[in-house]
Design a protein that fits this description.
By secondary structure, the chain is of the alpha/beta class. Helix content is about 15%, strand content about 65%.
Length: about 150
């Protein structure tokens, strides 16, 4: 695979060793390393690292590190460390996360460093508790509905 650099374009799918998008959009960006500046993607799949500045994606998955500055996504998953500054995510999952001046819906990580200006709606223990409560409620509702049909 070759490197792929794109400036001011809309691309459906990119598969390369290195993807660098500047003021561009991609439906799917898949590479070892992905860098996006002032742009975005539907889904970003990076084997090693993902760096997003002033942009985002619906889903960002990195096998290694992830850095997001003034951007974010619905789901951010990093196998290694994640740093988010002035951004956010609906669901953020990482081994280690450092978040500053950002909004996070659900944060699931081994170790989190939350700096000034961070708002997390649900952290790891709260997310687990909500999942258990929701599972119990659905199981009880299902059982109650089956009884009503019998």
């Amino acid at each position: 695979m070759m490197d792929h650099e794109q400036d001011k374009a809309i691309v459906g799918r990119i598969d390369a060793e290195l993807v660098s998008l500047d003021r561009s959009l991609a439906g799917l960006a898949r590479a070892n390393d992905v860098t996006i500046a002032s742009g975005g993607a539907g889904v970003i799949l990076a084997a090693h690292s993902a760096a997003i500045s002033r942009g985002g994606a619906v889903g960002i998955v990195s096998g290694g590190s992830m850095t997001v500055t003034q951007g974010g996504g619905q789901a951010l998953v990093a196998g290694g460390s994640m740093t988010v500054i002035q951004g956010g995510g609906g669901v953020m999952v990482a081994g280690q996360a450092s978040v500053e001046k950002s909004l996070v819906g659900v944060l699931i990580c081994g170790r989190a460093t939350l700096h000034d200006g961070v708002r997390v709606l649900l952290n790891t223990p709260q997310a687990i508790a909500m999942g258990v409560a929701l599972g119990l409620a659905l199981a009880l509702a299902s059982r109650w509905l089956r009884r009503g049909q019998a």
